[in-house]
Specification:
Blueprint lengths: L4 H17 L12 H40 L4 H14 L11 H16 L6 H8 L11 H19 L10 H25 L2
């Protein structure tokens, strides 16, 4: 199955960041000057932001497609049904209340989901679940390796963003590059393919 346009944009952006921030050739001894190490740290922060944006954009585009299908054809897809239930359950103090979909209910559910995505701040497992469970992507369908890798990458980003450089573990630009291109992107591509099938 072909990659989504949004996934191709992510790959292109990560490539640009690699060119801007990671060495053209990696040191065989792992010795880098302070500027190269700061650039590798910057790469982690920016790559994390790009991956987070990709995940949120893909989920929101699926929700928006379901809204458009409802508006144009009156079709309440399984994805839209899940969003309506999610919105009802999360926004009512007295719990879930079943109701027939209406234009107003659909728009409120989409707006609610969009605001939930706006509050997301990360790519760890808990963040991934908050992004994808409301649109019907089941936890058991998420690649455990990808979740573990994103947890690790998210923790690295968190330490870089919130701790002084003196408190950081030593960083290896080659390991950072391998993490993104050998571990994260191949599994994200599989997720992208699964999202293409989500209706």
């Amino acid at each position: 199955m072909p990659k989504s346009k949004r996934f191709l944009e992510l790959e292109d952006r990560l490539d640009v960041l690699r060119q801007h921030f990671l060495p053209v050739t990696f040191s065989p001894t792992g010795a880098y000057d302070p500027v190269s190490l700061d650039h590798a740290r910057a790469f982690i922060l920016l790559a994390h932001a790009e991956i987070e944006s990709y995940l949120e954009d893909r989920a929101l585009s699926k929700a928006d497609r379901a809204r458009r299908r409802w508006k144009s054809r009156g079709l309440c897809s399984a994805l839209l049904s899940r969003l309506l239930v999610y919105h009802s359950a999360r926004s009512r103090a007295d719990g879930w209340s079943p109701s027939l979909p209406s234009n107003d209910a659909v728009q409120k559910a989409i707006n609610f989901y969009q605001s939930e995505l706006g509050r997301n701040n990360g790519i760890k497992e808990k963040n991934i679940l908050c992004i994808f469970l409301p649109i019907g992507f089941r936890h058991c369908n998420l690649n455990a390796t990808l979740l573990a890798t994103l947890n690790s990458f998210g923790e690295s980003r968190g330490k870089l963003a919130h701790l002084s450089v003196k408190a950081h573990q030593p960083i290896d630009p080659k390991s950072v590059s391998d993490e993104v291109w050998k571990n994260i992107l191949p599994d994200l591509e599989k997720l992208d393919e699964s999202l293409n099938k989500l209706r």
